[in-house]
Amino acid sequence: MSTKIRTKNSKMRLFLGCGFLLLILGPIVVSEIVLPRKFVVPHRTDYNQNAPADTPAKDGLAFTPFDSPTKDGLTLKCWFVPAVGQPAAGTVIILHGWGGSKEWMREMIRVVVGHGHNAIAFDSRGHGASGGRYCTYGEREKEDVSAVLDESLKRFGEIGPVGVLGISFGGAVATQALANDKRFECGIIMSSFCRLEDVARVQMRLMTRCDNDWLFHRVITKGEKLAGFTVADIQPTEAARRIIQPILIIHGEHDHLVPVGDPRTVMPVGAEDSEELVQDAIVTAARMLDSVERAGKKVTAGNIAYYAILHTKSGRRNHGCGRTDALASATQLDCKSSLLSLEDEVGYDPELDEPITLGDLLAEEREDPALTAARDIDWELFLATHDYRYGVMVVGLLQGKKFGEAARGCGSGFSRPYQLRAKLAADLREFMGQTAIADAARIPAWRANLMVDREHAACRADRRRQ
Known about the structure:
Oligomer: single chain
CATH architecture of the domain at 52-262: 3-Layer(aba) Sandwich
CATH superfamily of the domain at 52-262: Alpha/Beta hydrolase fold, catalytic domain
């Protein structure tokens, strides 16, 4: 009887020991191996290339399978499907979503070729029948799209204007490919994400049912090492800012993995928001349409949309497109100005031993130190040895006139005074040095020494009184 009890106790201890070991090692295995691989190793859907049910032949379409090499030596499995019943108007490269394959896109292929365009579909690296194991979310995939285009041109010759269409993960790759290769003349982006880090956090929350920062960053770091890329660099939003081709963005309102707000954040500049830009582009398009109708010209809706988007990207807004207003979108796009918070630090006050914010500086009642220093500069020699119009402008400004009024005395056209002002600034820096304003504002050494002596005397007097 005692032997049976000891045996039961041994089994119980073994069971508890295994359970405890699993409790300790389980989270480590999940965070170090399972989740990182799920992040960068997609599930493969490998269809039989020769089975009619798995190819465009199922839809009665002719197609040519071919292989495309990548820069790093992988092989991508591709289809070329020619347009149906008429000469092709162009070619569309179709990109599938995460864990998918070109077979997933058969319905999209049928629509594209039915509307008179060739279609090219391929399995992305690490997907379907293509080579590779890891996915980099566009870091290398964007170059793969260009490689497929190169191989297609080599095999099939002239295929007309080429656009790219991507869904979900394929949409993110398409956005980066459009920014990377200007041979793509247009794009359709469906349900793409803006920043990989954001959508990865949502996926992690769905898989683990928790939102743990340590676990998230551990998984991301491991995944980056496995696949050889940096998650923070995968930002289709930033890529979209470099796109000059027309693009159409489509997103479902009930997409919980990639919120609909994501694609709307592609284009804003400065303090703008996406809803404001949509309204602005509609007003711009309406004005264009009214203008061409008054001129008796016929245009398509696509033409209007194309040029409205170009205007929006260039910084033009329906309320103006000036590039001299510091707050204008065009000025910010030209990197001539930027928005700062009133809480931003712009200096340091040694007397109070605290930083000076932009709000403090603007609220200061004293005169701008730059203006004070500008008055201390020896202008007489500079004006005597340079263009006489500099003197006209400077004297007018000193008299309190606005720049436009002061510049009228130069007898030039509207734009010439601004060019003259820029030339004056360049000549002044050359004549007096780049630090002329700072040098004029600097307290002379003798005055600084005198101020220090006075402070020492005041301190000694305070100590005597105590």
